[in-house]
Write a structure and sequence with these properties.
The structure holds two protein chains of two kinds.
Chain A: E1 4-7, E2 11-14, E3 19-23, H1 34-42, E4 50-56, E5 64-70, E6 75-80
Antiparallel strand pairs in A: 1-2, 3-4, 4-5, 5-6
Chain B: E1 20-24, E2 27-31, H1 37-43, E3 48-51, E4 58-60, E5 72-75, E6 78-82, E7 93-96, H2 122-126, H3 134-145, E8 161-172, H4 176-187, E9 192-195, H5 223-236, E10 240-243, E11 247-252, E12 256-261, E13 264-275, E14 279-280, E15 294-296, H6 297-307, E16 315-319, H7 322-333, E17 338-343, E18 358-361, E19 363-370, E20 374-381, E21 384-389, E22 392-396, E23 400-401, H8 404-408, E24 412-416, E25 421-426, E26 431-433, H9 443-460, H10 466-486, E27 502-504, E28 509-510, H11 511-519, H12 525-532, H13 545-556, H14 577-581, H15 594-598, E29 604-607, E30 610-613, H16 619-628, E31 631-634, E32 639-644, H17 648-655, E33 668-674, E34 680-690, E35 693-698, H18 703-714, E36 722-725, E37 730-736, H19 740-745, E38 762-767, E39 770-775, E40 784-790, H20 794-804, E41 811-812, H21 815-824, H22 859-868, E42 872-879, E43 890-893, E44 896-907, E45 912-920, E46 929-933, E47 938-944
Parallel strand pairs in B: 1-7, 8-9, 8-13, 9-10, 13-26, 15-22, 16-17, 16-22, 17-18, 31-41
Antiparallel strand pairs in B: 1-2, 3-4, 5-6, 5-7, 11-12, 12-13, 14-23, 19-20, 20-21, 24-25, 27-28, 29-30, 31-37, 32-35, 32-36, 33-34, 34-35, 37-40, 38-39, 39-40, 42-45, 42-47, 43-44, 43-46, 44-45, 46-47
Helix pairs in contact in B: 4-5, 4-9, 6-7, 9-10, 11-13, 16-21
The chains are: A mainly beta, B alpha+beta.
Bound molecules: FE2/S2 (inorganic) cluster (FES) (2 copies) and zinc ion.
Chain lengths: 85, 958
């Protein structure tokens, strides 16, 4: 793994500067069924292709942001600050 | 010993004026500065350097270019050094490998005669059954199959380094194509890094003496001079950094090159890469093609031109097209004692040669005769067979493009019928190729394609001009057309199938074995490779991949156009583990009071990156001071976060099972935090220092994760809350013990009485004149104060407190005493007494879950555990004896594992062993008996659900 991650604050940096934060998820509402909660906690899409993911710039600005990454070619095509959704 | 040096000549790199002494297998030799170990041995007439892997056949210099397995030796305890490229140094102790007991008399050479017993796939066939004999097979295989040995007593002088380079254009290969590409790119304004694996730039030109044509910069110069000139031009051109004697071992995602230069690994991040890796000559296929003395033509040339070493007195060259004839011309110019040239298929007219060199056309080579040294080539011309005597052979067949890096990068290699080679058919976006790697061996084309690649790379990153490119493109196209017009066809492989025609020298795989493998059904090159271990040796297929691909096509009747090369993976050349590991750097964090501790103790404990005093005097003495007098511990390593903003309180409510929005200013509350699976992540305290300002502590090891956890929950929300990691901003001590208030009173004007600053109160006030946060909390169950001051004052605070408490017997205490004391109070440590499956309900923290709260992180999961009821519980245990079970020891019932000890210590103060266990709820009642496994036997312990010390908690409220 040696691709570059474009931090919205610092620009493209070596992936080793970052912590991977996993797929972006939508947290269920408190009254969701146990099955929905279990899926949220443990099940991941693990998409083969473009995935929306969290990254944290550990050795840089120490901020979280969201990327679009092609998980096959390891190319990050877009990154930006998280929005409310 | 013979002396095989030629008279001095222009272009040689050795210094004949001085000598370097070294030994080979214990025997003394000498060479000159500028020699490699291989050239120095060749000059002494030493041919045989190693024994082959499977059949233990004698092997000698073959490529003289670091690309084959033949010259692997052990140098000063470091195995698998390539003699032909390793510079000779004074006093080196060189040993042969794979030979036992000696190179000349090798017992296992008998395997050469027994090849019928070592068929292809012999590992699979022979050593598969019976399974129970594996240990025996393994022992034998170790000895037979060794590739060098590791001398575990050797202490080589290693100083590995890592470098990071960033550039616009990285050029791989410092031959004419690479040098010119670098010059053009840099002239257009690009920052260039040029990497070459030879000791000097110039590539193949270094060992050529005939004039070079095709580029004005070096037009008409001899090869040697042209190489030097290119080196000068590169040095003069601003914007080029050159790494020589450096191998690119891999191309990785993000146009990253891994480069090994001695003990340094350089990571080069480039915008564009130009691959100008050239081409390697390929060995010829005939029986006994591995006899010592049978070498590649460029190897003979290199030894003669660079090191002034004669490879033989009667040298025969084998050629198959114009490339071979150009090498023959160079060999003649280099005074190599050529006696014959065998043309196996070029059909080109014979160039003018000095008298005494026989030219044999249309011959097939049948065998290399001899044993430890080639004595002749048996050939067939028409129907007649004859023997051409010789003591060295220069195999100068058309070289194969070195496309390994192209493939690693995801480029595609295809057989180009016009060129007759496997070349790049598709490249990844940021990569271009130049020079002989394109399969064309012509100086004018090489340099034209180098110039074009350099310009194109510059233009791709927004430098240079399109016009310049257009001109370069036209020029290159013309050079290519003219080179192709003269380009011969490769000679079809003729594989009569002899027993000792080696395709893969590394793994000793012969033509016959490949034929047999295909017959057995391993037709696909990738499966054939795994079955035969073909291309899997130390050279990683550099010598045999092309041969194997062609041979397989011939044997299966498939066209080369349909054929594939095997997958290329890093490393392209071996890299030592030490170089890859890089320097041994371990970050260490020291608190602001570190120097004070160092004056008192040398017993440290590592906690994360931190060093903390483990014990100062004795655990017993330190515990006594805490319980009876006053004591002080450095707690600067605690993680500290400041959470501020109008929504800070509600944000903390969201993250915790308990509540903070209702915490009063000047009060502290215990906190434990869970994730949405209800797992306890961390604990600590929260102090409210202002209406919108909270001061959190975390455990030492989790601060980074906690900072990330909190900021992650804030990201993308519009909560008015800011999280700042202030761990390094504050130094802190805990002043503990019944007399701690007296000490603090001496240093502060603020009222720290029980009424003014009761248990769980917080205030900000100067201590010893330093602004401080004072929290009335503690971990050890006594009256205590956690005092935070700006880091710069940490040492000062320590001094002031110890001085102020001197008459009261103030004593520093370390981590070990603290752990015993907290265990006496049954305070759990998250991460020690809990693990990645612990929820608060089963960790004895139910009391802090506020069931009436709205949604918070972990609520659903905690509610589910609460509903089903706890199955395990974290409780205390005690043992009347001085048996201390190991932390992690099993708790068993009826012989079954039911729980584990999470902490256990001998408490000198209480005079018993105490600890924490996680056990089934049925056993967790106060007073029940549990059985704990010891290294030998078991011990019965009593469950204790209340703190062992001061169960009512009166002392900390004093
Ligand atoms: S002769 Fe040294 S690697 Fe080939
Ligand atoms: S010759 Fe090295 S792997 Fe085949
Ligand atoms: Zn950043």
């Amino acid at each position: 793994m040696s691709f570059l991650v474009p931090c919205p604050q610092c620009g493209p940096r070596d992936v080793y500067e970052f912590r991977f934060g996993g797929e972006t998820l939508r947290r269920p509402s408190p009254d969701a069924t146990p099955l929905v909660w279990t899926n949220y906690r443990y099940m991941r899409v693990n998409r083969d292709g473009n995935a929306r993911e969290w990254w944290f710039h550990r050795l840089g600005c120490r901020r979280w942001f969201v990327t679009e990454r092609d998980t096959v070619r390891n190319v990050v095509s877009a990154s930006g600050w998280a929005t409310g959704d | 010993m013979t002396d095989e040096r030629l008279p001095p000549a222009d272009g040689e790199v050795i210094d004949r004026g001085s000598r370097l002494r070294f030994t080979f297998d214990g025997k003394g030799h000498s060479g000159h500065p500028g020699d490699t170990i291989g050239s120095a041995l060749a000059a002494r007439g030493v041919r045989m350097l190693s024994r082959s892997f499977k059949y233990h056949r004698p092997r000698a210099l073959l490529c003289c270019d670091g690309r084959c397995p033949n010259c692997l030796v052990e140098v000063d305890g470091i195995p698998n050094v390539r003699a032909c490229t390793a510079p000779l140094r004074e006093g080196q102790r060189v040993r042969s490998q794979n030979a036992w007991p000696s190179l000349a008399f090798d017992v296992l050479a008998i395997t050469d005669r027994l090849d019928r017993l070592l068929p292809i796939g012999f590992y699979y066939k022979t050593f598969y059954r019976p399974r129970r004999l594996w240990p025996l097979y393994e022992k034998v295989l170790r000895r037979v199959a060794g590739l060098g040995r590791v001398d575990i007593t050797a202490r080589p002088d290693l100083a590995p380094r890592t470098r990071h380079l960033h550039c616009d254009v990285a050029v791989v290969g410092g031959g004419p194509a690479g040098c010119i590409a670098a010059l053009e790119a840099a002239a257009a304004g690009a920052r260039v890094v040029l990497v070459d694996d030879q000791p000097a730039l110039g590539g193949h030109l270094r060992s050529r003496s005939l004039p070079v044509h095709g580029d004005a910069r070096i037009e008409g110069l001899s090869g040697t001079r042209a190489a030097q000139r290119l080196g000068e031009l590169i040095a003069e051109q601003p914007g080029i950094e050159t790494l020589i004697a450096a191998t690119v071992f891999g191309i990785y995602e993000g146009t990253l090159l891994g480069v090994n230069q001695g003990q340094t690994v350089a990571r080069i991040r480039a915008k564009r890469i130009v691959i100008a890796t050239g081409a390697h000559e390929r060995p010829a296929l005939f029986d006994g093609n591995d006899r010592p003395g049978i070498m590649l033509g460029t190897a003979v040339l290199r030894l003669a031109r660079l090191h002034g070493v004669r490879s033989g007195h009667q040298v025969v060259a084998i050629v198959d097209d114009g490339y071979g004839w150009s090498i023959v011309a160079e060999l003649v110019a280099a005074r190599v004692a050529l006696t014959a040239v065998i043309d196996i298929g070029s059909g080109l007219p014979t160039p003018e040669l000095p008298p005494g060199i026989e030219v044999i056309r249309g011959a097939a080579i049948l065998e290399g005769t001899g044993s430890r040294r080639v004595t002749g080539l048996r050939i067939r011309v028409g129907a007649a067979e004859r023997l051409v005597p010789c003591d060295a052979v220069a195999v100068s067949l058309r070289p194969e493009p070195a496309t390994g890096l192209i493939a690693q990068d995801g480029g595609e290699r295809r057989y180009d019928d016009r060129i007759g080679e496997f070349v790049a058919a598709r490249l990844s976006d940021a990569v271009s190729v130049a020079g002989d790697v394109e399969g064309i061996h012509d100086d004018a084309h090489t340099m034209a394609s180098g110039a074009l690649a350099g310009l194109e790379a510059a233009v791709a990153i927004g430098l240079g001009t399109q016009d310049a490119i257009a001109a370069a493109r036209t020029h290159r196209a013309a050079c290519r057309a003219s080179a192709l017009a003269r380009h011969g066809r490769p000679v079809a492989l003729d594989a009569p199938g002899g027993r000792k025609q080696f395709v893969c020298l590394c793994e000793d795989v012969t033509v016959k074995e490949i034929a047999q493998g295909i017959e057995e059904g391993f037709e696909d090159l990738e499966t054939l490779k795994r079955y035969s271990t073909l291309t899997m040796g130390p050279c990683q297929g550099k010598m045999c991949q092309g041969l194997a691909t062609r041979l397989r096509a011939t044997l299966t009747g498939e066209t080369l156009a349909a054929a594939k090369l095997t997958t290329a993976r890093p490393p392209f050349q071996p890299v030592s583990l030490a170089a890859l590991a890089g320097p041994h750097l371990e970050p260490v964090r020291r608190t602001a009071m570190h120097g004070r501790h160092a004056a008192l103790t040398d017993r440290w404990i590592d906690m994360g990156d931190w060093k903390r005093p483990h014990i100062y005097t004795s655990v017993e003495e330190e515990c006594r001071a805490v319980r009876e007098r006053v004591a002080i511990i450095d707690v600067s390593t605690l993680g500290k976060l400041e959470v501020a903003g109008a929504d800070a309180g509600s944000f903390l409510d969201w993250l915790h099972p308990n509540r903070f929005s209702d915490l009063k200013i000047g009060r502290v509350r215990y906190r434990a935090m869970c994730d949405d699976a209800g797992i306890v992540l961390d604990d600590g305290t929260v102090a409210r220092l202002g209406d919108t300002r909270f001061f959190l502590s975390t455990t030492t090891g989790t601060i980074d994760a906690m900072e990330q956890w909190l900021t992650w929950w804030l990201a993308g929300t519009d909560r008015d809350a800011r999280v700042t990691n202030v761990t390094a901003q504050y130094a802190a001590v805990n002043l503990a013990g019944p007399r701690s208030r007296e000490v603090l009173e001496r240093l502060t004007e603020t009222d720290v009485s029980k009424a003014a600053l009761p248990y769980l109160a917080a205030t900000e006030a100067p201590v010893a004149g330093v602004p401080a946060i004072i929290l009335r909390i503690g971990f050890v169950g006594e009256l205590s104060y956690e005092i935070h001051v700006p880091s710069d004052f940490g040492g000062y605070l320590w001094d002031q407190l110890t001085a102020a408490g001197a008459d009261l017997g103030i004593t520093p205490f370390g981590v070990e005493a603290q752990r015993v004391l907290r265990l006496e109070k049954q305070h759990a440590i998250v991460g020690q007494d809990t693990d990645g499956l612990s929820n608060p309900v089963e960790s004895g923290m139910s009391w802090l879950v506020k069931a009436d709260k709205d949604d918070f992180v972990g609520r659903e999961a905690i509610a589910a555990v609460t509903a089903r009821g706890p199955q395990q519980m974290l409780v205390g245990f005690e043992l009347p004896e001085r048996t201390v079970p190991e932390e992690g020891a099993a708790v068993i019932r009826d012989g079954r594992l039911v729980g584990r000890v999470t902490s256990s210590k001998w408490s000198p103060y209480l005079g018993k062993t105490i600890g924490m266990v996680s056990i089934p709820i049925e056993q967790a009642a106060d007073g029940s008996e549990i059985e704990i496994r010891l290294p030998v036997g078991t011990v019965r312990a009593r469950v204790a659900t209340k703190p062992f010390y001061d169960p009512a908690g009166l002392r900390l409220r004093m």
